[in-house]
């Protein structure tokens, strides 16, 4: 682990006890995430991608091994508000305006009114929703609601952004647009991003590092360091380099299925 490591998992395992017996969700996961990385987690349903993200966020608790976030335990990092979390569904309160939804964590954390106003304005600009502060969630499209959800996660300026398939329910055109905007946001804020996805093109397009996971028990079968430049227009997806990385991800997913027991 070096000075720029912000997330470190060592021999991390998680077993859920159920009525039908134990379920091994994660097994011997080892991973280092560096400051400023954009790391995608990809694998079949039930491979532990979301579980791993939830371990980072202290929403699940490993049964073996350890995980540190900013050199602290996951619990300490949660209490220190080290990360923002974006869920699959936007999860906006329908009775609060977009500004009110973004303001909620700031209210809970005790920021004063002037600071709340400034932060809400800043993050709405970051996600290109400047003129929507007084709108309600139902007045926004699905893609705009997810952008508001990202703004809420950014509002208290945590260094780490954890995103659990935030664009999975959106159509391809909207998804492409939000992928472009997310890369632009990442470039502007220099956050460290952990991103769960089912989509190979999305993982390859967004990431500096792609973590390929196997079916249960979730193990890492490959970690692919992207050779793509940080500036990525959408048509980079037609280049031989992009296609080659996508092939390697696909091969890793197949290999993972091959040694399923």
Task: Summarize the model shown.
The protein has 261 residues and is an alpha/beta fold.
3D structure, described in words:
With 261 residues, the chain is an alpha/beta fold. The protein has a domain at 82-160 and 169-191: 3-Layer(aba) Sandwich (Rossmann fold). It is 37% helix and 26% strand. It contains eight helices and ten strands. The chain has helices at residues 49-56, 74-79, 98-109, 113-126, 142-154, 172-189, 200-206, 240-258, and strands spanning 5-18, 21-34, 38-42, 64-69, 72-73, 83-86, 160-164, 192-197, 209-213, 220-225. The strands form two sheets. The protein has a six-stranded mixed sheet with strand order 6-7-8-3-9-10, sandwiched between helices. Strands 2-1-4-5 form a four-stranded antiparallel sheet. Helix 4 (113-126) packs across helix 5 (142-154). The protein is globular.
């Amino acid at each position: 682990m070096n000075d720029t490591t912000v997330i470190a998992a060592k021999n991390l395992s998680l077993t859920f006890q159920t009525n039908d017996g134990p379920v091994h969700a994660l097994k011997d996961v080892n991973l280092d995430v560096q400051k400023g990385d954009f790391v995608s987690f990809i694998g079949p349903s039930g491979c532990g991608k979301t579980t791993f993200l939830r371990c980072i966020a202290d929403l699940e608790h490993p049964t073996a091994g350890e995980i540190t976030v900013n050199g602290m335990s996951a619990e300490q990092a949660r209490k220190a508000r080290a990360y923002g979390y974006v869920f699959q569904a936007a999860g906006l309160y329908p009775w609060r305006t977009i500004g009110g939804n973004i303001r909620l964590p700031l209210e809970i954390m005790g920021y004063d009114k002037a600071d709340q106003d400034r932060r809400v304005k800043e993050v709405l600009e970051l996600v290109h929703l400047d003129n929507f502060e007084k709108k309600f969630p139902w007045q926004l499209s699905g893609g705009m609601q997810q952008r508001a959800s990202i703004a809420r996660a950014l509002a208290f300026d945590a260094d780490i952004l954890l995103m659990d398939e935030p664009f999975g329910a959106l159509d391809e055109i909207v998804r492409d647009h939000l992928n472009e905007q997310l890369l632009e946001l990442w470039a502007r804020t220099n956050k460290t991003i952990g991103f769960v996805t089912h989509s190979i093109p999305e993982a390859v397009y967004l990431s500096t590092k792609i973590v390929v996971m196997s079916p249960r028990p979730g193990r890492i079968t490959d970690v692919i360091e992207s050779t793509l430049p940080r500036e990525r227009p959408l048509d980079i997806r037609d280049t031989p380099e992009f296609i080659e990385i996508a092939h390697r991800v696909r091969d890793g997913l197949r290999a993972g299925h091959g040694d399923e027991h």
